[in-house]
From TrEMBL:
BP GO terms, sorted: cellular response to oxidative stress; hydrogen peroxide catabolic process; response to reactive oxygen species
Record protein name field: Peroxidase
Annotated signal peptide: 1-21
Superkingdom assignment: Eukaryota
Active site residues of this protein: H132
Cofactor detail note: Binds 2 calcium ions per subunit. Binds 1 heme b (iron(II)-protoporphyrin IX) group per subunit.
Organism: Bombardia bombarda
Positions of the Plant heme peroxidase family profile domain: 123-344
Assigned keywords, A-Z: Calcium, Disulfide bond, Glycoprotein, Heme, Iron, Metal-binding, Oxidoreductase, Peroxidase, Signal
Length: 422
């Protein structure tokens, strides 16, 4: 993401031919135009919600901040801290909108952080839930859909095949909602807050600006707005553009698959991760999607096709390269702020409760990573390992199981070679 003034430069250049036309001018202009198209193709800068109609003088501090974040003029990350959190059920807690969110953050954190330090299945599902609630919106649906809680509140949404796998986190959100609704907490906020708490709990994940005050809706989001793992790059790029998310933003958001372990795309490989460090918010997903990758890493066809598209590849490769982690975290945070506010028309009235989030973890290597490496290197599906990784456990006690399989495979290879049957 880089703030671009090429469009303005080009608007100026368009007047040039009448003033100083010369041979080759058209070609030069064509090149300039192509360059502008490439740059302006890819960064999301469009305004959303009530920010479209409010003038700068009408903006609240939060309105200003959100506007600056989504146009690429302020960071979507923050380390802001919360001092002297009031006790729950006191008048001073009730007087501070963010106070209850500190207690919610603590509750969520406990279910999102596994014993190994990796984030859990619940954390990944919370990130995906935030995406699926908010992304049920497009520029043509206006006030309908978006980050409005309907993925939990409208019972028909969970029956849609693309939401398969979100059943448990939806149940959990309902439990949290029942627990905290009395404090004025909306489902829409709970879902988006769940996604940002989960992201920062995943080791190396960004601490994303988190706002509260969204309205709920129990009207189902318009159907057909969520992506599928067999969709083409052209289709997916257009789908996200209709949500104001341009290719660079999509490239950053896709990296959420760095933590994931698919279960339903190929059920015979349930639990196989999308990179060699599931539960860790690192850039290995970008490297291994481009290849090479170990046998247990399962890459979605849509991720492969997108990574090869000229509108996606340069940024994808940059995230995979030197300095990629910081660059990605920054871009992901910015784009997630945008995503988390799609279909929200009271952005100017929201409250910034980023200070309640857990601290970011900026360096991390799992104690059992070498065993995970052995596992992702195996060609045989080991459900027990996949399950232990799913819930964020250490897999140290599964070492002998993995070694047994590796030795068996090796013996089979040796025997096959010895009998000459290969
Ligand atoms: C081209 C766009 C995308 C496609 C086609 C896609 C598709 C999928 C599929 C098929 C799964 C596996 C579900 C399963 O079998 O369990 C998955 C998992 C996941 N996706 Fe995406 N996704 C896309 C974009 C995103 C975005 C933008 C985010 C977040 C910002 C995201 C976050 C996740 C997470 C966290 C998981 C893991 C869920 C879990 O482990 O329960 N995805 N995605
Ligand atoms: C960018 O941010 C700076 C300070 O934060 C502000 O002065 C400037 O007006 C902003 N520019 C835009 C385009 O919003
Ligand atoms: C994905 O890419 C492959 C290889 O380029 C191509 O054969 C396939 O048609 C693409 N899939 C879609 C859905 O576009
Ligand atoms: C914003 O808050 C003010 C004061 O509480 C309220 O009057 C107004 O209706 C709110 N606007 C929106 C769009 O919710
Ligand atoms: C996680 O999975 C492991 C292995 O399947 C199991 O022993 C452990 O009890 C599970 N832990 C939790 C918290 O679910």
């Amino acid at each position: 993401m880089r703030f671009s003034s090429t469009a303005a430069a080009l608007a100026g250049a368009a007047f040039l031919p009448s003033v100083l036309g010369y041979p080759g001018m058209d070609k030069l202009l064509g090149e300039l135009q192509d360059k502008a198209k490439r740059q302006d193709c890819c960064d999301s800068t469009e305004l959303i919600g009530d920010l479209i109609t409010l003038s700068d003088s009408q903006l609240s501090p939060v309105g200003h901040l959100v506007k600056n974040i989504i146009v690429g003029n302020a960071s979507g990350e923050s380390n802001e801290d919360y001092y002297n959190v009031p006790l729950l059920n006191t008048a001073s807690c009730a007087a501070d909108t963010c106070c209850i969110w500190q207690y919610i953050a603590n509750t969520m954190e406990a279910s999102f952080r596994g014993a190994s330090g990796r984030c859990t299945n619940a954390a990944r599902a919370a990130v995906r839930l935030g995406f699926h609630d908010a992304a049920g919106w497009s520029k043509s649906t206006g006030p309908l859909g978006g980050a409005d809680g309907s993925i939990v509140l409208a019972p028909s949404e969970i029956l849609r095949p693309k939401n398969n796998g979100l059943q448990e986190i939806i149940q959990q959100m309902q439990i949290w909602y029942n627990q905290y609704h009395g404090y004025g907490v909306s489902m829409a906020d709970l879902i988006q807050f769940g996604a940002t708490v989960a992201t920062v709990v995943c080791p190396l994940g960004p601490r994303i600006h988190s706002f509260v005050g969204r309205y709920d809706s129990s009207i189902p989001a318009p159907d057909g707005l969520l992506p599928g793992p067999f969709d083409s790059a052209d289709f997916l790029i257009d789908l996200f553009r209709d949500k104001t998310i341009q290719p660079h933003g999509l490239t950053a958001l896709l990296g959420a698959h760095s933590t994931s372990q698919q279960r339903f795309v190929d059920t015979s490989r349930a639990g196989d991760p999308q990179d060699g460090t599931p539960g860790v918010w690192d850039v290995l997903y970008y490297k291994q999607t481009l290849g090479p990758k170990p046998p247990r890493v399962f890459t979605f066809q849509s991720d492969i096709n997108l990574s090869e598209d000229p509108r996606i590849y340069p940024e994808f490769a940059a995230f995979a390269g030197p300095g990629g982690q910081q660059h990605w975290n920054e871009d992901y945070a910015r784009e997630y702020v945008r995503l988390s506010l799609l279909g929200v028309y009271n952005i100017n009235n929201l409250t910034d409760c980023t200070k309640t989030l857990p601290n970011a973890i900026t360096t991390y290597v799992a104690a059992d990573q070498w065993i995970v490496d052995l596992w992702v290197g195996t060609t045989i599906h080991l459900q027990a390992v996949a399950d232990a990784l799913l819930n964020g456990s250490l897999i140290t006690n599964l070492l002998s199981l993995i070694l047994g399989i590796l030795l068996k495979v090796k013996r089979t290879v040796v025997e096959t070679v010895a009998t000459g049957s290969a």
